[in-house]
Amino acid sequence: MTEAMISICQHQDWLKCAVNCINFGQYMSQAMWIKDSELLQLPHFTQTEVKHCEKGKGATTAKTIKQYLEIPDENKKGLADMSAEQKADVIKCCSLIPDIGVETKVFTDDDEDAGVYEGDLVSVQVTITRKHLQEGKKAGLVHSPFFPFPKNEAWWVIMGTKEGKIISVEKVIDPSRVVEHKIKFLAPRQGNYEFDLWVKSNAYVGLDQKQTVKLTSLDPSTLPEFVVHPDDAELDDEPTLFEEMLNANVEEDSDSDDDDSDDDDDNNKKGDGIRELSAAERKKEQLLLARKKAAAAAGDEDSDDDSDVEEVYTDDKKKL
């Protein structure tokens, strides 16, 4: 539910509301009211133990969870009336609560010029170091005994403008000891800018860190003129591996087309000599032959009739 609320805030560009939603998720995970002391996150702590920790002055006095974690275990207040097992629970919980360090770095991908110019793709690298973990160790579940489900440790990284506009809101779930997270955005117009950056826990109250990210955006017209080196120009003119493969395939296709045309010419030449007649051609030849035979037969009958006529005519003439 909390993440859905944060997503709506991000869509509507509500920076302050998104931060408050994350705060709400922290208090809900620890089953606390927003006015409760941060020390109530510790096991077996009540208002009595909280007052004992806040009483007095000196290095052993703590009003926040960060202050309490910095006190050596043997000097921590609020444990006097607890059993040995309860004291062990408090000390164990203090070792699990994360102690983080946050570093930021602003840069662009241009190796030749370290400046940031209007329209450049700017990267803000946020490095989160879990100082309470040893090398090679990873974060596990958070201490939230009243939350109905197991919850893994994660951190919200929020960046916004002083005017309350959101640049980025992302949840970092990597459990490694050192985590690097990058925020990318386009550099604004020429000028000096300051952005607010929060690193907020998804479950603990009082561990959040806030920093100011400064950015100077330069006028792009002041960029030096880019001159292409002659060697680079020659490399650009050379065909790429893909182009070489494509040209080779084209040549093979043209060679195969030439071979096919040669085969067709040879077949045509052979066809000028003796070749087998098709069925239609054979039928046509048979019809022509039948017509010739019929014509020849008709010619013989006509000649017989003429001879008969001549014979009759000669006989009649003799009688006369």
Number of helices: 8
Specify the biggest β-sheet: 5 strands, mixed
What integer value in Å does the Rg equal? Answer: 48 Å
Q: Quick check: average pLDDT?
A: 84
Secondary-structure element order, as H and E?
HHHHHEEEEEEEEHHH
Give the C-level CATH assignment of the largest domain.
Mainly Beta
Identify low-pLDDT runs.
306-320
CATH topology of the largest domain: Immunoglobulin-like
Shape: elongated
CATH homology superfamily name of the largest domain: C2 domain
CATH architecture of the largest domain: Sandwich
Q: Estimate what percentage of residues fall within beta strands.
A: 15-25%
Q: What is the strand arrangement across the widest sheet?
A: 2-8-7-4-5
User: In whole angstroms, how far apart are the ends?
Assistant: 140 Å
The number of strands is: 8
SSE-based structural type = alpha+beta
Instruction: State the domain count.
Output: 2
Q: Helical content, roughly?
A: 40-55%
Defining traits:
2 domains; alpha+beta; 320 residues; five-stranded mixed sheet; transmembrane helix; disordered C terminus; elongated; 20% strand; Immunoglobulin-like
What does this structure look like?
The chain has helices at residues 2-12, 15-29, 47-54, 65-70, 84-96, 230-237, 241-271, 279-319, and strands at residues 100-107, 116-117, 121-130, 155-161, 166-172, 178-186, 191-201, 209-218. The termini are far apart. Helix content is 42%, strand content 20%. The strands form 2 sheets. A 5-stranded mixed β-sheet has the order 2-8-7-4-5. It folds into 2 domains: 2-222, Immunoglobulin-like; 228-270. The protein has 320 residues and is an alpha+beta fold. Residues 306-320 have low confidence and may be disordered. Helix 1 runs antiparallel to helix 2 (15-29). It has 8 helices and 8 strands.
